[in-house]
Design a protein that fits this description.
Order of helices and strands: HEHEHEEEEEEHHEE
Oligomer: single chain
Structural class: alpha/beta
Number of strands: 10
Number of helices: 5
Strand content: 15-25%
Helix content: 25-40%
Radius of gyration: 16 Å
Shape: globular
């Protein structure tokens, strides 16, 4: 993980002074957990969760709001302010500040959409099949969220059919029994069989 963090720090800025790193994948594929570990390896780099940007009414139609509230201010070296969505109360909360940082992670389904890719220094894709990801997500959220998940799956299928992310991923992230394996993605420039980073122990790449 620290090897990957080092490589990301060395990238040129992609959004104003920020190296914006996208972590995309199907719902339930482990994006939040991976992004949290990568954030710590980066010295507690800020993580923007797209669950805070989406809403019940706009599961995927939030591009304009993200660009206006987050991307455009960061691109000008300014502090972004975005209103996180409260999924229980069903309304947007008071705005949160997101100052520019050397590296900012943006994680969530759709982090690699075409409108955001020009601002990303790297796009990472969690390599887990959609059916397994959705099964994990349903199990995590319980029976009370079954109706929501039925609607989500339909919306996610439509999103990725119209605006796929994986073909543009620089790196593919595979969760192992201990740690993660990171290999070049479809958009990567390194040979397809070369493992980018690896290590030993539960917090390292495997």
């Amino acid at each position: 993980m620290h090897d990957l963090a080092t490589r990301l720090r060395r990238l040129p800025p992609s959004c104003g002074p920020v190296r914006l790193i996208g972590v995309d994948g199907h719902a339930g594929s482990g994006k939040s957990t991976f992004a949290g570990q990568l954030s710590r390896a980066l010295g507690d780099a800020p993580v923007l969760h797209l669950d805070d940007i989406a809403s019940h009414d706009e599961l995927f139609e939030w591009t304009g709001r993200l660009l206006t509230q987050v991307i455009e201010p960061l691109a000008h070296g300014e502090t972004a302010h975005y209103a996180p969505y409260d999924w229980v109360a069903r309304h947007f909360a008071e705005p949160l500040a997101l100052p520019p940082a050397p590296v900012i992670l943006i994680e969530g389904v759709g982090a690699g959409r075409r409108a955001l890719r020009p601002y990303l220094a790297r796009l990472l894709w969690m390599e887990l099949a959609h059916e397994e990801s959705w099964t994990r997500g349903r199990s995590r959220d319980g029976e009370e969220q079954r109706e929501f998940w039925d609607g989500w799956v339909r919306a996610e299928r439509r999103h990725f059919a119209d605006d796929p992310s994986r073909p543009f991923a620089d790196l593919l992230v595979r969760q192992c029994r201990e740690g993660y394996q990171v290999v070049p993605g479809p958009a990567g420039t390194v040979g397809p069989d070369q493992i980018i980073t690896h290590g030993d122990g539960s917090s390292a790449m495997c």
